[in-house]
Amino acid sequence: TFNAQVGSACSLPPSSRATEAEEVEKNWAALLIMAVVAVTVTGNILVILAVSLERKLHNATNYFLASLAVADMLLGLLVMPVSMVTVLYDYWWPLPADLCPVWIYLDVLFSTASIMHLCAISLDRYIAIHNPLHHSRSNSRAKARVKILAVWTISAGISMPIPVLGLRDHSKVFKDGSCQLTDDSFVLIGSFVAFFVPLTIMVVTYALTIRALQNEATLCLDLLVPRPKWSTTLTLGFLPQPAMTPDKTFRRSLSRKASAVSAGGVGGGGVRGSVSGGPPFGLRTIQSINNEQKASKVLGVVFFLFVVMWCPFFITNVLAVVCDPALCEPAVLGGLLNVFVWIGYLSSAVNPLVYTLFNNTYRAAFYRYVRCRYRAQKKPLQQFLVNTIPPKSRNHLGFSETDQKITKKILHPSQMKKTSMRVDLRSLRLPLLQFLCRTPSPL
Fold it and tell me: Which domains does the chain have, with CATH numbers?
């Protein structure tokens, strides 16, 4: 039978021996692959530890990122080393034939799980921005675990036909002694279901999330601060232009103060603080939106790198099926696939680096873990008391004396009375602001 022939063929070495120069190239390639494997496994273990131990990272988005790190870590442990062995053997399968469909299954499973996790993160954040009340009721640890389990179930369902068919018929997973899928229909359908459809959903929902955050920030600023007055100064176009009014200056001051408050990073799991000692409600709301936008930028970098690194492989994979062999040389496409698959594997290694560069909480946690310190150092008692003493002399809106001095400087004396009256009226609309400007916990 064909299975017996494949089994006997896999027990023999390749007929052609590589030259000494080719052996040196393979050794360097093996060293590079081992470095990629080490970075992938170590970095994703650090991510899993950070989400497990850091209280600030206990939110739905980071739970998804921890599950994504599990998929990337398993890819580095179970898939990349075997792929390195095939590279050393000129892509000839040196292991038992029954392990080939299992290896392809794990490869497809973990790669599909990665894109599904990113798609789920994008959907979850869009729902959180678009419908915050419903999301806050359903956004618990148990619900997050259910969503993560659903992601893994979908990924396993997509990749399950590979071992079922491959173990029955080795011709489905072997081609010229190389371990690869040979069923064109499965390759084509799997590429769209496992990559292109989730990619489309991820890109669309991420764009909608960014747009919703921008609209929400504008709405909250408009509710907190009145719109600028139109000046009566005429320009060359004979049209009234918006001047730099005190209200506009006050709005920019609020924005600068919110940016200063949130300069510590996007990690933190949301905006926390007591009512008596925390910042004013308006600043707290602006800070929350600011953190959401920063978290979206970090996730945007992760999405972008994943798309850039995996798109060449899947596009070439589809071309190898639909393109006429007279136009597309199969040998060239096969060589490109062997290169592009490793570029895709690199995406599993770069995610922890992205978190380290753009997130203060992850960066501090990683720095402690590599020094075998798994708990954050406690602050001295004096510093703790300074940080916990509530600020003095806040008015009924929560503004300190410094805030009032800044307001007096930037507002014209003739408008002080009107402005204070508007602030008093706006203080009655805090429940409305809480409803409209509520945002979910950022990354």
Answer: 2-376+386-436 (1.20.1070.10)
- Tokens standing for 352? 């922890």
As a whole number, the mean pLDDT across the chain is: 73
Q: DSSP letter for 267, please.
A: -
Sign of the CA dihedral with 375 first, then 376, 380, and 384 last: negative
CA dihedral in degrees (324, 326, 327, 329; nearest 10)? 100
- C-beta atoms surrounding 290 within 10 Å: 23
Helix (H/G/I), strand (E/B), else coil: 240: strand
Mean pLDDT of all residues in 307-314 = 93
Written as one letter, the residue type at 277 is: G
Phi and psi angles of residue 437, each rounded to the nearest 5 degrees, phi first: -105, 15
CA distance 356 to 121: 19
Of the candidate ranges 92-101, 171-180, 377-386, the one whose mean pLDDT is the lowest: 377-386
* CA separation for the pair 45, 354 (Å, rounded): 15
Q: Could you report how far apart the first and last alpha carbons of the chain are, in Å?
A: 55
Look at 211-220, 269-278, 370-379 and tell me which has the smallest mean pLDDT: 269-278
- In the three-class reduction of DSSP (H, G, I as helix; E, B as strand; rest coil), residue 14 is classed as coil
Instruction: Name the residue type at position 234.
Output: L
Among the listed residues 70, 82, 80, 79, the one whose alpha carbon sits nearest the alpha carbon of residue 43: 70
